[in-house]
Amino acid sequence: MNYTLNQLQVFLKITQTESVTKAAEELHLSQPAVSIQLKNFQDQFDIPLIEHIGRKIYITDFGREIAASAEDILNQVATINYKTLAYKGHLTGRLRISIVSTGKYVMPFFLSSFMRQHDGVELVTDVTNKTKVIQSLEENSVDFSLVSITPPNLNVEKIDLLQNKLFLVGNRQHRQKGAPFTRQIFKDLPLIYREPGSGTRQVMEKFIERHHVPVVKKMELATNEAVKQAVIAGLGYSIMPLIGIKNELNNGDLHIIPVQGLPIKTVWQLIWLKGKGHSPVAAAFLKHLKDERAEIVKTNFKWSEEY
Fold it and tell me: What is the model's pLDDT at position 196?
């Protein structure tokens, strides 16, 4: 046996995602590179680690046992690295954050300078929908969660990061200037929804219900990017967070349609369970946010704050 730590990491990620493509994305590697690492790792065993059925892969029982051992080995290696850096006086450990999908346009800017300052910190993030983000918080499997709506039935503490604004948007064929439309415009516009469990959908549905807005539901899609592309293609309209459509507004692919009562305003918040004992890394990151939040917003989000 002559497997490498890189092969262990690649194989573990494949078992977690059950997809070579997704593993490649999360590891920031090309799909061929991941496939080669998987083949080289498999060649060292006489027993199959995975099975291919059609275009889908399945992890064998033996493969899952090897993955569990791989995870233990990688954790031990990380511990050695942390201890080495800690002995040198560096801040070390893992920072775990779950992020609602649209938050991927926000959170990196609040993380970048902290990660540059502390090279002994390992960042573990999960970008998913609001339901799964809250679940990870409830299970205490993360240090923080980034949301735009505070969960009503969970006792949490929070720090406000950035205002979140949601506008009605259409593609380049729908340009509107002048006075805003009344909310009756919605009865003529087929709307594209996010999937159930999405915070954006929750905000959108509350607006529709509160104002008794007549709507024509066209379709629902699983990601902000999918909704964006559908609107650009002319399949319908949607109420979308401003933070995720900056480039499309600048190049004219999308246009904001002014409507009375819009934008909807919420706040991007980093939340954690009330009374949670923070690790040194989590405590340091929280202090970083409190000290640097205003400057990060000014530098990176002035355009959205003033929109």
Answer: 87
115 pLDDT more than 60: yes
151 Cβ contact partners less than 8 Å away, ≥ 6 residues apart: 134, 137, 271
pTM above 0.85, yes or no: no
Q: Greatest CA separation found in the chain?
A: 71
Please tell me the predicted confidence (pLDDT) of residue 89. Answer: 61
Which two tokens mark 19?
Answer: 């997809």
> CA–CA separation, 116 vs 196, rounded Å?
36
Fold topology of 93-162+267-306: D-Maltodextrin-Binding Protein; domain 2 (3.40.190)
CATH of domain 5-87: 1.10.10.10
Q: Is the pLDDT of residue 137 over 60?
A: yes
What pLDDT does 63 receive? 92
Reported as a pLDDT band with limits 50, 70 and 90, residue 239 is very high
pLDDT at 306 over 60: yes
Report whether pLDDT(296) > 70: yes
